[in-house]
Amino acid sequence: MAKLVSFIASSSSVSSRARASWRDYYEMTKPKVLMLLLLTALVGMCLASPGWVDWRVLTIGLVGIGMLASSAAVINHVVDHRIDSQMARTFNRPVAKGKVTIPNALYFALTLGVVGFLLLALYINMLTAMLTLAGLVGYAVVYTMFLKRATPQNIVIGGLAGAAPPLLGWTAVTGEIHAHALLLVLIIFTWTPPHFWALAIHREKDYAKAKVPMLPVTHGVEFTKTSVLGYTVLLCLVCLLPYLVAMTGIIYLVGSSVLNAGFMYYAWKLKFAADCDTAMQTFKFSILHLMVLFVVLLVDHYVPLSL
Ligand code: HEM
Ligand SMILES: CC(C)=CCC/C(C)=C/CC/C(C)=C/COP(=O)(O)OP(=O)(O)O
Questions:
Q1: Is the CB of 41 under 6 A from ligand 2?
Q2: Does 196 contact ligand 1 (Cβ within 6 A)?
Q3: Pick from 72, 57, 67: which is nearest to 115 by CA?
Q4: Which label site among 38, 51, 156, 239 has the fewest CB atoms less than 10 Å from its CB?
């Protein structure tokens, strides 16, 4: 631990030393991202159960998954504090600003990680604990420490960690990996590139300044817009799979088609008729898209409607 702290601190540009409050610790867990991750995990749990999910699995499972995902987010704040301090969107973050020290952030991450892992391992099952730990390592280590700095395909590969929660919810209930759970993972995996690259187009100068090799920086904005459109088409196709394999019903088919039509509208506009707000509008719509899509999956599961 001491060696890790001194390694990270040696590249530190942290200067100011304002007092940290509980809000700084809360912010480091990326609470809004966490809420959406937990919604997808909850839907994974519900779709794995014929009826209601056992309340014990639901609460302990979501708390455990949430704590490990938060731990990963805190580690991301520590590892990225130098990059964060150079970008307008992130310069005010607690570690980048020096409000939370690197050792305190790491102790916070360690506590969240250990308690979250033990909850899953002792009260849910070892498979869920290990898969969630793999998600933490995938995001905090593989993506943040290596891929983010190495390749513009960083978020495509790293996106697997963020896509994992429906599978984690599913295994929390059944203790097994099921093909239907992997379909939910595939949806989020395909959704991630248009979600992130839309924002990266809007923030291209920020990433260039911090020398982070995101796609608009390395391959230009036009190529990134084409990639957003390509992945959105792919997402529309992948979203049909749950209906085609009879995992979902007509409510899902109609709901997901409306949402995908919306995403296609923004991706098309971004490529062929963009104004200065379109990239940000596409990014915001991507979040609404995923949130409503998973609510629709839930409604479809509990409201039997056969046509
Ligand atoms: C490698 C994969 C991903 C990358 C690189 C990525 C990147 C980002 C970035 C840079 C932001 C802006 C954060 C800010 O404004 O400070 C963001 C916001 C957001 N992301 Fe993602 N994201 C990924 C995966 C996900 C996943 C899997 C989810 C949920 C299932 C998600 C949900 C959100 C939400 C809800 C926000 C809005 C946060 C806010 O308004 O504070 N993201 N994402
Ligand atoms: C399931 C589990 C245990 C895994 C954790 C997954 C997790 C927290 C995913 C979050 C994805 C995310 C917000 C990436 C931001 O990328 P970035 O770090 O490049 O963005 P930033 O510049 O806003 O920090």
A1: no
A2: yes
A3: 67
A4: 51
Task: Provide CB contacts within 8 A for 123, sequence distance 6+.
Answer: 56, 60, 64
With a 6 A CB cut-off, is 266 part of the ligand 1 pocket?
A: no
Same-domain check for residues 43 and 166: yes
Predicted TM-score (pTM) of the model is 0.94
**139 and 4, same structural domain?**
yes
Q: How many residues does the chain have?
A: 307
SS3 readout for 183-243: HHHHHHHHHHHHHHHHHHHHCHHHHHHCCCCCHHHHHCHHHHHHHHHHHHHHHHHHHHHHH
Boundary residue ending a domain (176, 203, 233): 176
Q: How far is the CA of 159 from the centre of ligand 2 (A)?
A: 9
Ligand 2, atom nearest to 70 Cα? 8
Domains in the chain: how many in total? Answer: 2
Per-residue three-class SS string for 37-48: HHHHHHHHHHHH
What is the complex's ipTM, to 2 decimals?
Answer: 0.96
pLDDT in tens, 152-167: 999 999 999 999 999 9
CA distance 186 to 226: 21
